[in-house]
Amino acid sequence: MFKYVNQPIEKIDGLALVTGEEKYTDDFSFNNMLYVSVLHSGYAYAKIIDIDDSEARKMHGVVEILSYKNVNQILYTTAGQGYPEPSPYDTLLFGKTMRFVGDNVCAVAAESKEIADEALKKIKITYKELKPILNLEKSEGSSIIIHKDDGAFPKIPVFYDAKKNIASKVEANVGDFDSAFKKSSRKIELDFYCSYGSHCAIEPHASVSYLDVRGRLVIISTTQVPFHVRRIVSHVAEIPVSKIRVIKPRLGGGFGGKQEILLEPIVALMTWRTKRPAKLVYSRREVFKSTRCRHEYQTKVSVGYEADGTINALHLDALENAGGYGSHALTVLANAGSKTLPLLNKIENLRFTGMGVYTNLPVGGAYRGYGATESYPAYAQAIDMVCEDCGLDIVEYYKKWCIKSGETSAIFQALGEGKEGVAMTIGSTSLVECLDEGAKLSDWYEKRKLYGPNSDFNKGKRLKRGIGMVAMMQGSAIPEIDMASAYIKMNDDGSFNLNVGATDLGTGSDTVLAQIASEVLDTPVESFIVYSSDTDFTPFDTGAYASSTTYLSGQAVRKCAEEIKKQILKVGAEMLSLSIDDVELNDSKVTAKENIKEEVSFAEICQYSLYQKNQFQIQATASHISPKSPPPFAVHFIEIEVDTFTGIIKVLNYVATVDCGTPINPVTAEGQVEGAIVNGLSYTLFENYYFSPHGKMLNDTFGKYGVYTAFDIPPMKVKLIKSYEETGPYGAKSISEININGALPGIANAFYNATGKRLHSGPFAPEYVLKILSEK
Asked: Is 23:249 a contact under the CB 8 Å cutoff?
């Protein structure tokens, strides 16, 4: 069906990456460059009484120091989101109030990194330590007010109450939950706690800035959102947008952590004031304590149902720890409901309630999964509990109750990102096929008969086995909010420049977007010179988040390429003295439909259009905004072995069947699935933040934090089950986020199948597992 789409095309930057030729942010250096170091708060909650930087300024090699004393106090949000942002304006670049261990105190620019670090030691800070809030359940309405009289405000009309430490609040109702729950003959309630988590991108946050020959500020940065960086730096540093250029080079991972504008305003101010290049690269410890992480969550699911498994009412409640600032607090919270509750759309009475609260712990932000990761463990375990209680096979249950093509859910309209959502009908889904194929690949029915807490296989044994599953949905871009653009021009030799604002994080989006253009124009991917993520030379794109790049940016590229196709056909027809209706594209040529030997090459067409007759540049630009957010679907089947002596959970086999529509590049799509699964497994079994009694993170290195390595990866089977999404480029939907959501609920359900006990808190570390096993 396709020639270039749905093909395993080699990544266009692959060879340069593996040979070390591509440049990352820290690879850029300039003459006369300054090196920046940031002093971070050691207190969870404190007021700065005074900063004495006189000794530091006397040091040889110290050039500039920034603090609240010489930086204007301008409120903003660090969240790289569409404008006006749904996150509260509650942050100062350098303020007098420290709200978590790792908050910015001041920054030094010096002739070397060593001098800058030494200068930080000479700066004398007088603090007034305040009593912090270090428990999300004790925040709302506390006498300790974290944002007291600092002017913090929401940019859009949403609920916000800083006096009660409420950073965000969401509620959505479908039907009458209270009445339906009360009348139900059976009821269950389940609590689940999700811990903090770090993105663990191999490349740390980094920014380099300099002035170009015309005095404009250029920022090279590890960002997922270059256009948002430009806008927010302009606001905070008070530099006109016209004077700022932002470039994203190669990126060593993002996962949402680099959707935040943190380092860029600091280097921008240093360069703007000193007229010299400046570089700031965070250490791993700084990434852990001073950037952003997955929000801590406490969720509760209440379900009322009947003996035949009919769910009458379901309520999902979420309490979110925003940390010291409210970055993404509203939108992650809304997604906790909107990316889960529509899955079983036949439930007539639904309620979602959520609240994000300020504490003096690390600040949450965007992270792959974005709320769904935190809500699926309770939601999916509750569905498993209903099926267990009613003696139903959960695979068949999902097949009966799941949302299907042509159907909708009232939740789509009730829950949006910072505002009411968008009504939507499902256009494409192969979820039922994913359920069937996953059950087959995992030997689901055979192993469910074999395993069980009281089975002959497990009874009396130290090593107990179980198998669990979870079905999921996510989204593709933010409907009626996100926008992407593309520009293409033709060159003399028949090649094309493809300029896109979309941000390749290592995901292969540059290649995928070239494949889409190749399919339209029937010319090899090698014909495209792809340039992305430069605010001066690429058209606008909201950035790489919300699973939007392939679906949204890809459609912008397709529309742009279609316009180029029209222009090529017009010129080709003129050269062949034929009507445009009588010619077609054929392998980098325009040929006559009746006689393919009548042909002109793309090179000849471009040269004709530029030099010979009716001259013009073959070029086009296009933008795209989507009226809907078609969900990808996935089903994960996970087989585990529980060591009842040590508490260690070993994953024996992991099967994932995924509906992402048409996978534009099946190999990179499968890589996205595998990477997300490993990401989720690490978060499920290993990752956690440990704090001192004063709110300081204690395990702020990879060695102490603990992440999955290649040696930990279990056997995995990934199968992409195609559907065709009419609103996506060549039928494509998103794939990058959904598969991180399966490990927590899937392993929890498998654990129950093995032991008969439920897990209520992640990660499933050995000590926690032993505690659960010891409970009667």
From this structure: yes
Residues 605 and 509 in one domain: yes
Ramachandran region, residue 161 (left: φ > 0; alpha: ψ -120 to 50; beta: rest) = beta
Q: Residue 189 domain-assigned?
A: no
Judge contact between 259 and 547, C-beta under 8 A.
no
487: Cβ–Cβ under 8 A, 6 or more apart, which residues?
A: 497, 498, 499, 500, 538, 539, 560, 619, 620, 621
Helix, strand or coil, per DSSP, at residue 63: strand
Domain span at residue 81?
25-130+205-281
Residues 642 and 713 in one domain: yes
Q: Where residue 43 sits, what CATH number does that domain have?
A: 3.90.1170.50
| Residue 28: exposure state from Cβ atoms within 10 A (0-12, 13-18, ≥19) | middle
Boundary residue ending a domain (563, 591, 625)? 625
| Residues 335 and 465 reside in one and the same domain | yes
Residue 595 has what pLDDT? 87
In a domain, 141, yes or no: no
Burial class (CB within 10 angstroms; exposed 0-12, middle 13-18, buried 19+) of 706: middle
H/E/C letters for each residue in 609-638?
Answer: HHHHCCCCCCEEEEEEECCCCCCCEEEEEE
Work out whether strand 619-625 and strand 349-358 pair parallel, antiparallel, or are unpaired. Answer: unpaired
pLDDT for the residue numbered 776:
83
**Token output for 660:** 């992402």
Same-domain status, 31 and 102? yes
CA torsion 561-565-568-569 (nearest 10°) is 180
pLDDT for 420:
85
Handedness of CA 55, 60, 62, 63 (dihedral sign): positive
CA dist list (Å): 276 to 34, 246, 423, 719, 733:
7, 17, 51, 52, 44
Placement of tokens 């995995």 in the chain: 716
Please provide residue 548's backbone torsions phi and psi, each rounded to the nearest 5 degrees.
-110, -15
Q: Taking the CA of residue 382 as centre, how many other CA atoms within 13 Å lie in the half-sphere pointing to its CB?
A: 27
Half-sphere exposure of 389 (CA within 13 A, CB side): 19
Give yes or no: residues 376 and 439 share one domain: yes
DSSP letter string, 432-486: HHHHHHHHHHTTHHHHHHH-STTSTTTTT-SEEEEEEEEEEE--SS-TTT-EEEE
Residue where the block lists tokens 């070029």: 619
At 559, the amino acid letter reads K
Where does a domain end: 625, 640, 658? 625
**Same structural domain for residues 489 and 460?**
no
Euclidean distance between CA atoms 299 and 190, whole angstroms:
8
Q: Is residue 148 part of a domain?
A: no
Please report the DSSP string for 355-379 in residue order: EEEE-SSPPB---TTTTHHHHHHHH
Same domain (yes/no): 209, 269:
yes
Q: How many angstroms separate the Cα of 436 from the Cα of each of 123, 125, 346, 432, 433? A: 64, 63, 20, 6, 5
Strand order in the sheet with 311-323: 166-174, 349-358, 311-323, 296-305, 186-194
Provide the 3-class DSSP secondary structure of residue 394: helix
Residues written for the chain = 776
- By C-alpha distance, which of 352, 413, 511, 633 is closest to 11? 511
> 195 and 688 in contact (C-beta within 8 Å)?
yes
Q: Is residue 156 part of a domain?
A: no
Co-location of 105 and 242 in the same domain: yes
Ramachandran angles phi, psi of 42, nearest 5°? -95, 0
For the chain, what is the domain count?
3
Positions of the chain with pLDDT under 50? none
Q: What is the CATH number of the domain that holds 760?
A: 3.30.365.10
Q: What is the pTM of this model?
A: 0.97
- H/E segment holding residue 592: strand 589-592
* DSSP type of residue 732: B
